[in-house]
Design goal:
49% of the residues lie in helices and 13% in strands. With 1041 residues, the chain is of the alpha/beta class.
């Protein structure tokens, strides 16, 4: 009966044949599925940020439809603006008439002007093109993109020449060589694809359908149905971007100012979406950093001489090339680089053992860089750099022309290309140094000089042999017997992503939205990105779409009295290695199918596996589940993943894949369903303590003073060095554990096998959707029992999927009915909406079911969700086999039961306070409780717990005075051990814990517990009871370990 009622209710609301229409923040949003509350919250945050032209940082776990929500919300906002302006059809005229804008690439190729559109373009950036390919799949589901015949929104993807060149030369050349050959082929008119660009206006409609790089290349080659025109995807995408509404590109195209200029990428009024945002801190810092070797500088001098030689050769042939290069400027540049080399050679480098940096080095603050240039006659400044930049570009153009116009051997071509790449490297490096980004945010930069050992092949020691007129055959670099030499490097280090993001914001963008499935700890991360120049006004740490019964989270602190602690020192501890291996075995025997195990580093994984093989633990685990190990080479990963999935999906057996946090399997791979039913974390993945960049960044963060402006959220404190170091490790942990849940019907378990994860601060840094389920264990039998109960709930579902393949119609019918009920689990967001009978149409004339948010209805339907769960597992003992939260159990309690329980707890607590307090102090305590109830201020419970502790101290101080014992007159400095015996101290602690647990609001419990814990640490000596209590985030109460 229950199942039939539920099915009837969903039948009213559910219609999969239509797009669902919602009004969120006065914007009509079309979503291909029925909304969940977490999806609604996410789109609401996006639209709030876009409408207010503010920045947002949003975390939403994998499986919540984050990408689709982001695209639907932002494109709906874009369409709303286009409609309000009334220029929707005029601005997107893509008919094949003569009025269309023609693609005149010869005219626009060197034009520095950017085309400003009258609508906010959506620029969607992700880490790689493979990740953008997944975004394109979701983009095709967006209503306004799917209905391209009506809305005609244009989309494109930007890529490099290596990726988008469809000419045959792409098979033989890459990088600089490909650029040269491309220019040569175009100028000779031999590239049929570039020649076909003049017909592209007739194919402009193709860009109304989102295309990845591979699809675009196939269409460019003329392989699409009904199209015989060939065109170059590389140049076509660069030109059409000015008219596109959605542009997809990798991170580095967005963060590198030089790349944006080359692409003529206009960011004004654009919506910048940065997906997979957990990676951007490092990428944004690297975008404004550089490294130059002393051998590069020496080779650059040779390239100046080579340029003079080439000038001499083409003097009579090409007067245009001669006019572009000023020989006097070349000599000034030559003197400046010589001065830089002299200064670098004179710098005395030293080792600093205190900082743990093994190599000799020296550092300068960012603001000292320009003084160094001025004091050492390095005559390159921000004011004259544009002139030198033009000179360097002309040198590259001349050498390219020399390769194309003169018949040279392949060796000669390779040598000249090395000159070109060296000039280009110097040009890019100096371009960063004299950019507005560095000039405006100089406090985030540091000049670093170091000495390192490099091989002969890395030292640029070969000189082009036909240019002896201006150079020697060999440089004076000395090598040891292994062909290694010492090389000095000069590097510009950036210590904050703020610098790159400021470079984007200065172009007057609409909003920057940074999003990912794993940004926690999110508030310090937002401040790390924004610095003192701007702020993220909208911060969201979203819930998961799954229900509480679909996730199990446990932390094991000990195994058979051996503490689990994966520190560097413990790698050689045989007792720990054995305990870890046996603990993993005892856990994986309870987990069906696939399990991922993550170690802190490759060296840790290798040493642990070798030790397990020695103790025969590896064979024991491998016998139960086949073990696969993440390979060193990325090319070998595909085969291992195929073998791993084959055992699980085809053979229906268990398997283990071992990897490393921040490694190849920790992100970007979709381990759906049985491929990952459990994730085990062994240790904390801290960065290399000897890495100079990490050492200097920690030092920088310790010494940097943030000036918090009124615009910034002053409650968010920027992280200091060690705190940032810990947060980076936790962020990579959160990324790894995200492998376990990949969609709304998925389920799995997460295990932390390290006692450090039981720390309350560490728990708060775990993603919200995980920490609310957190449980701490010390007994292996207890966690095994709980794991068995958890997976028992889903055991019928796995059997069902096998049974569905059978042809027995009776069983099929039974299973289909159960499957219908399964799908209904977690779909209760629809119950939060009621149908709007006033209209069945919207302004886009689409018949829709429109729902209005009704949160009260959601709470009433919670028991029905539990009924569905029980219905699936009919025939089983629900009390033992169903894993439900205590909150859900309380739903079945009557109101009278709750009242009686609270009365009993209150009577017990009053009796306890009467027992320890004098009558006078007890009266004050009672008055304090009554006053607190009347107050409305936010921190009234924090004040209450402090005042109660003061009254207790006063009580025992007065009691000791009456007994003529010497006590401190100042109650604030009293040590509790001096005025109470051990039993009294424990009783007071437990009474206060009971008070917080039973009578404080849920949102105040955690905060007040930590305040109480802090007070007892300050006012007690060797009070062991403190370590026994932790705050359980899932149950939302304090409990004893």
């Amino acid at each position: 009966m229950i199942q039939q009622k539920i099915h009837k209710k969903y039948k009213i609301l559910k219609n999969e044949d239509i797009n669902h229409h919602y009004t969120i923040n006065d914007i009509e949003v079309y979503f291909p599925y029925e909304l969940y509350d977490c999806q609604y919250n996410y789109m609401l945050s996006v639209l709030n940020a876009l409408k207010k032209r503010e920045n947002a940082i949003l975390e939403s776990p994998t499986g919540t439809g984050k990408t689709l929500c982001l695209l639907c919300a932002s494109i709906s906002y874009l369409v709303d603006i286009l409609e309000k302006k009334g220029n929707f059809s005029e601005s997107i005229n893509i008919t094949e008439s003569n009025k269309n804008t023609s693609f005149d690439f010869k005219e626009n190729e060197n034009s520095p002007k950017k085309v400003v559109s009258d609508f906010p373009k959506i620029i969607y950036a992700s880490r790689t093109h493979s990740q953008l390919k997944q975004v394109i799949k979701e983009l095709k589901n967006v209503y306004f993109i799917k209905n391209n015949e009506k809305y005609k929104l244009l989309t494109t993807i930007l890529g490099s020449r290596d990726q988008l060149c469809v000419h045959n030369i792409n098979y033989n050349y890459k990088g600089t060589l490909l650029n040269n050959m491309c220019k040569r082929t175009r100028r000779s008119g031999e590239c049929m694809y570039h020649n076909g660009l003049k017909y592209l206006d007739k194919l402009k409609h193709l860009f109304t359908t989102p295309m990845d790089v591979e699809t675009l290349n196939e269409i460019g080659k003329g392989n699409s149905i009904g199209q015989n025109i060939h065109f170059c995807p590389f140049y076509a995408t660069r030109e059409i971007q000015n008219e596109c509404h959605v542009i997809l590109l990798p991170y580095n195209y967005l963060f590198e100012e030089n790349t944006r200029k080359i692409l003529k990428l206009n960011l004004e009024n654009s919506i910048i979406i940065i997906d997979e945002g957990h990676n951007i801190e490092n990428v944004a810092e690297e975008a404004v950093s550089f490294k130059i070797k002393d051998s590069d500088l020496s080779f650059f001098l040779d390239s100046i001489k080579a340029t003079l030689t080439v000038l001499d050769k083409v003097n009579d042939i090409d007067k245009e090339a001669k006019d572009k290069i000023n020989v006097d400027e070349l000599f000034i540049l030559n003197r400046s680089i010589n001065a830089l080399i002299t200064w670098l050679n004179n710098e005395r480098l030293e080792k600093n053992e205190r900082k743990k940096i093994k190599e000799k080095h020296k550092t300068y603050e960012g603001k000292q860089i320009f003084e160094i240039f001025k004091n050492n006659n390095i005559n390159i400044t921000k004011e004259n750099f544009e002139k030198f930049n033009t000179l360097l570009s002309s040198m590259i153009e001349l050498l390219n022309k020399y390769i194309n116009d003169f018949k040279l051997s392949q060796m000669d071509i390779n040598n000249v290309n090395r000159y070109i790449s060296t000039i280009d490297n110097i040009r890019k490096s100096f371009g960063i140094l004299f950019s507005d980004i560095v000039n405006n945010c100089i406090e985030y930069f540091q000049l670093y000089i170091n000495e390192e050992k490099v091989s002969y092949s890395d030292c640029a020691d070969k000189v082009y042999d036909k240019m002896k007129k201006f150079s020697k055959n060999k440089t004076k670099i000395e090598y040891d017997k292994h062909n290694y030499t010492m090389c000095k490097n000069i590097s510009l280090l950036c210590f904050s992503a703020t610098a790159s993001l400021c470079g984007i914001l200065k172009e007057k963008v609409n909003s920057i939205i940074v999003t990912s499935g794993t940004l926690s700890p999110i508030e310090p991360f937002s401040r790390q990105l924004s610095g003192k120049y701007f702020s993220f006004k909208h911060i969201l740490e979203n819930d998961h779409v799954i229900k509480s019964h679909q996730l199990f989270v446990g932390c094991m602190t000990h195994y058979n009295n051996q503490i689990l602690l994966s520190t560097y020192e413990n790698r050689t501890n045989e007792n720990y290695i054995k305990a870890l291996g046996n603990c993993i075995f005892d856990i994986i025997v309870c987990i069906p199918y696939g399990v991922l195990i993550f170690f802190s580093s490759y060296s840790s994984m290798t040493e642990t596996v070798n030790a397990w093989k020695k103790f025969q633990i590896f064979d024991k685990i491998n016998t139960y589940k086949t073990i696969f190990i993440e390979p060193n080479k990325a090319s070998d990963l595909k085969e291992i993943l195929n073998n791993y999935e084959n055992i699980i999906k085809k053979k229906k057996k268990g398997a283990i894949l071992m990897g490393v946090c921040r490694g190849k399997i920790s992100e970007g791979i979709d381990f759906k369903d049985d491929c990952c039913r459990g994730v085990i974390i062994c240790g904390l993945p801290y960065g290399n303590v000897y890495d100079s960049k990490i050492i200097f960044k920690k030092e920088f963060l310790d010494n940097f003073n943030y000036e918090i402006s009124d615009d910034n959220n002053s409650s968010i404190i920027p992280s200091k060095g060690n705190k940032w170091y810990n947060e980076e490790a936790m962020r990579s942990i959160n990324q790894s554990i995200g492998r376990v849940i990949r969609h709304k019907n998925d389920y799995g378990a997460i295990f932390f096998l390290d006692s450090r994860f039981s720390n309350n601060q560490r728990i708060r840094e775990i993603s919200k959707w995980v920490r609310t389920h957190f449980r701490i264990y010390r007994d292996i039998e207890q966690i095994q029992s709980d794991i068995d109960k958890f997976f028992e709930l889903f055991k019928g579902l796995n059997d069902q999927s096998v049974e569905e393949n059978k042809k027995n119609s009776i069983y099929n019918k039974e299973k289909d009915e159960e499957k219908g009920a399964i799908k209904e689990i977690g779909k209760n967001f629809q119950d939060c909406y009621v149908k709007n009978e006033r209209t069945n149409k919207n302004k886009h004339e689409i018949p829709q079911n429109k729902f209005i948010f009704n949160p009260t209805k959601k709470m009433k339907n919670q028991p029905k969700i539990l009924s569905m769960i029980q219905n699936i597992t009919k025939g089983k003992n629900q009390e033992k086999d169903i894993y439900v939260d205590s909150k859900e159990q309380n739903i079945f309690e009557t109101k009278e039961d709750n009242i009686n329980m609270k009365l009993d707890n209150a009577k017990s607590l009053i009796a306890s306070f009467r027992e320890i307090l004098s009558k006078n102090i007890y009266d004050k305590f009672f008055e304090l409780i009554k006053e607190t109830k009347k107050k409305n201020n936010e921190n009234k419970y924090e004040i209450l717990i402090n005042r109660i502790l003061e009254l207790i101290i006063q009580n025992f101080v007065e009691s000791n005075k009456q007994q003529n014992e010497s006590v401190n007159e100042n109650n604030s400095n009293v040590i509790l051990n001096d005025i109470m015996n051990e039993k009294q101290l424990i009783d007071v602690w437990r009474i206060l814990i009971k008070l917080i647990n039973n009578f404080f609001p849920v949102q105040e419990k955690e905060k007040c517990f930590f305040i109480l814990q802090k007070k007892f640490k300050e006012k007690t000596n060797d009070f062991d009871e403190l370590e026994k209590y932790v705050y359980n985030y899932r149950l939302e109460k304090i409990e004893i370990i």
